[in-house]
């Protein structure tokens, strides 16, 4: 392991644990800075159009995206454990915000800006609460297949949402009526569509063909990254100049970003509307959950590549405070963005200093060039969103998943279809519920094996799979899972069913090697099983009981109730003592 | 094991599996009949007042309880796997029906009789659906502590609900206002209260002191049971005669049961109101769940005492059809009743023939003596309910549970308080959610042990608990649970954390002896862990991989990715091959 990084990231004092920045700042070098300053500029180039575009995607004024790109990355740099993650507005959270703001009970309240700020504040508080309760593990219950299905579904919705902007169409009037949709599409604006397609073409060229060409020119890798990531900036500048030069916003009605308040955000707590907080809470919960899950996933991808580590609980803290910071500075919800983080990483960022530099550059833009930002055509921003979002639609992944585990495949497909048909939050809920129900169902049927001994060893294996020795008066069982309310009845029923198949059994020996915990329900079931066996003159024994389990059993009368049954230290010892051949 | 019973209950053909009655009828003997006829009469004595009382408790006309005591027990006798369970109206389901009928959205629809019948029909369908999907295991997720807390809470609500009937008070006008309640109680009717207290006293005398006296008289046990179970019948007859003789229903306004349609139920499907079905569905789900869980618990208690077995899935079928039968015959929801079943069992019932006899007796009563049943004072029925319900309030159990497992204690208390404060369904939901969340949380932190070898053996144990041999270049880990989305991240993090504590590790060997399944998420995490370790020049190995898991891994490229890491058959073999001392 790389000891420097571990010293910086994890072995330090509790202060470093809470402020990971202190870890890397201590050993910050010239070399780190060289990487960071280049990556910082490249990432800043992406931050401006993405900030505006994702605000547009959420149905919010541009400054909510820009403000979300200023204070939150600084906060994350202080508290976050990822060295290279770029925190700011992200597309999936943006479409979730749009969905929340469109919900009838929220929509009627008006003032979407305030609602968006409340969503961010609540999301931040939820993440902090999860950190305090150490509930980070619960988000594991969004399994990878569900997350992939969700991301694909949300991305498809994003793509659909961008078509009107790209083609310069008015607000969509028809939902599923095909004729209506055909008529609607025919209303497209030639100029806007032209600018949009031009942007798409340039962006596509920058996304792949350009780097191939540049690598033939034998340029250095980071220079190639640098140049090829300039695509978004280039199309934005190009199309904005086009609009400004020909006054297209007036002559051809090309929709542009419009009014942006110049200057840096002003800190404010002017969003404490209790009724709104209540109504927005469930939406905030979903957004926070997805923001956290996607951020940690991205952080881990980059950390793994450099052999660094992510502390999931500290990430809850860092993202929680970042979302509070965005709310206070009037921005929208933030998370780690996949494309931005990969750009930052591959442009050579070593530490969060890169993001601090990017924020500096962005701030200058927000202060001095807002006039120009207002003229960016929306169709260009849609093109930027589309190019960023296409790789997130992973339909073929469903087949791969299905082949490995059909249950997981079903969950992935159901989540995808749920998002598309029922809605974003509903689809995610469906996926999570499916995962939990199928998990509970699986758990309620634990694996138990009837075992026998491999000749001349002390090893016991499943009698269905191996050639093993057995004893006519013994039923040997290995319980492969913890015993809890979820499976207690099943285990008792299993023992009785196996007994019903055999005659002459005098002893049942349970190997508890995999049992780390027995809860109240399971304990009562174990007592019942023992009583039931005693009624049939069969003696129950336990073996390989772990320390913590034994401690609990000793607290009760169970060991006396068990008599003449015993608890053996080793399974083999029990068999040698009780087996008759 | 008792081979006759197993032959009857489980080894027979599929026909016997579906109609367990065929199992015991084949070997039905004179001795069986002697037990059954006595128990049948005793149980019938209980069925009449309980049927009327539980209908009253649910806020329904008496015949819904009586009808529920006729067809459903006959159906259960055909399909049920318990020999002695008495299926019919039960108190907990009754209060849940009352709660559903009182819900504003149901109440406004009017016609509570129709609603109650729909609840039963829907409950029956839900149970059958669970049987088809083999989801019986899911009800395990009502853990014993939650079930106990729920039963205690619901029983307290029942007790409170009976006070007005017992004292002859009008409908309660005040909820939590103490002064109002004091004034309200002062409105009690002397005559009604007198009859109620007389009933309570007689019932209490029959419940315990009488059997003690009778056993001093050296009577046979079943005779003692028979006599002491006549309490409810006796008070009903006594107080009804009192009312009839003095016309108390008119002179002293003693409330009586009132109009009962004479005769047997008429089968009908006249309850197919689709809107009501939708609104009642969640309530029906809760009632069905509790009916099933309590029935199986009671069935198991009596079956265990006679070394018989209950088939949980067949119980879903039997209770499902029984509830459809009650709906078609115009009755309320049914389940196995605890007190009635214990009476039937201890009066010497051998088979469901006892219940068939009881139903015969009850039917005669319903046909011929409805005029008398109408004059039963409600206060007497309240006394019957109270005596049956008191033992179900188990407050001290919370302390016992808490001592064994504090988490379970919290769940029990929370469910109890939830039922009392939030409502019946809400309290139950709270308890189930608490159980599932704490279970998921526990599962997301599986037990993993760093192990070493006990000298001169092939046995490996936790290095924190045992004196074991270790190797400086090996990290030996035993994963004690299945690897799934719930804990995949945790396991990876655990390995990295343990590595960070050590230096010089060349091999990480995971003992998969407890791993029966690896889902998609966990598989991807395992791949990531392997990549991460390879980046640090550490080799990952697996050992004791089970057959089904190996089958899955061979389907993927993982075994190649692992190289030079290997999969060892035995853990000890891996250690001997790779360990350097």
Within the largest sheet of chain A, what's the order of strands?
4-3-5-6-7-8
Which structural category do the helix and sheet elements of chain A fall into? mainly alpha
The multimeric state of the shown protein is homodimer
> Low-confidence parts of chain A, pLDDT < 50 over ≥5 residues?
1-11
The overall pLDDT of chain A, averaged over residues, is 87
Report, as a whole number of angstroms, the end-to-end distance of chain A. 54 Å
Biggest interface pair, counts: A-B, 75 and 76 residues
Taken from the alpha-carbon principal axes, the silhouette of chain A is elongated
* DSSP, total strands of chain A: 8
Largest sheet of chain A: 6 strands, mixed
Beta-strand proportion of chain A: 5-15%
Continuous helix count of chain A: 30
What does the radius of gyration of chain A come to? 30 Å
Helix content of chain A: 55-70%
Description:
The first copy, chain A, has 30 helices and eight strands. Chain A is mainly alpha-helical and 581 residues long. In chain A, the strands form two sheets. Chain A has a six-stranded mixed sheet with strand order 4-3-5-6-7-8. A two-stranded antiparallel sheet of chain A has the order 1-2. In chain A, β6, α27 and β7 form a beta-alpha-beta unit. In chain A, α9 packs across α17, α10 packs antiparallel against α25 and α24 packs antiparallel against α25. The longest helix of chain A has 32 residues. Chain A starts with a helix and ends with a helix. The N terminus of chain A is likely disordered. At the A-B interface, α1, α17, α23, α25 and α26 of A face α1, α17, α23, α25 and α26 of B.
